[in-house]
Amino acid sequence: MGIIFGIDVGGSTTKIVAFKDKKLIGALQVKAADQLTSMFGAIGNFLLKYDLTLNDISSITLTGVGASFFDGDVYGIKTRKVEEFQAIGYGGLHLAGLEEAFVVSLGTGTAFVRAAKKEISHIGGSGVGGGTLIGLATKMLGKNDIDAILSLAKDGHIENVDLSVREILNHDIPSLPPNLTASNFGKIKSTATDADFALGIINMVFQTVGVMAVFAARNDTIKDVILTGSLTAIDQAHDIFGDFTQRYGLNFIIPPDAIYATAIGAAIYHDS
Prior knowledge:
Mean pLDDT: 92
CATH topology of the largest domain: Nucleotidyltransferase, domain 5
CATH class of the largest domain: Alpha Beta
Oligomer: single chain
Strand order of the largest sheet: 3-2-1-4-5
Distance between the termini: 16 Å
Order of helices and strands: EEEHEEHEEEHHEEHEHEH
Structural class: alpha/beta
Shape: globular
CATH superfamily of the largest domain: ATPase, nucleotide binding domain
Low-confidence stretches: none
Number of helices: 7
Number of domains: 2
Number of strands: 12
């Protein structure tokens, strides 16, 4: 069997992976001004990086919001599409090695998928995600480059912008740990720096996603939550979701290659 491409075509970023004999042989992502340029650029870059030719590719599976821009076969290679939520579910389960889980895809917004081998269903979503992070940082900090925002946040102190439970209660409540966030940006000190604001934005986005995942799992037997998407590469994700694991009795998982989960799901769907 030849090589199978799974391609997640986003708004401006395309993620591409390749499988051969059901083994991942490579992954990369490409950013461009439009979906067409991004997708074809991803294929070209992948072939060059891994010393392949179009003749090595047996099939392509497209997913993501940009997949709708493509009709028919790509470069004469058998091409099909898979609905994005299916790809999210298959990709998350494959990476975590689980039979069932909630899969959370942190992209421009956030999608929540209940995934099992026999059924994958989209249970909802949120407009809070990477777009929120970039948008707020652009307005509040004058920065729209994610690397610059993350670099700034490393020196931030969350207590300079967020209000904690211990600051609004005069007695303990067992269900509310004192270090729990009572209000994001609910206590902005006059001495708060741009680094504090950068960290506060990241904290708010991840905490919002985490709480929604907790609510989704509350009345379900599934207790594993697989986090996928580009935002999982942010260092603070591991600390914040690790805290959610301890606090709420759920198992939040950020698997290796999590940023490529949807593209991987597209490729995996080929053999499903």
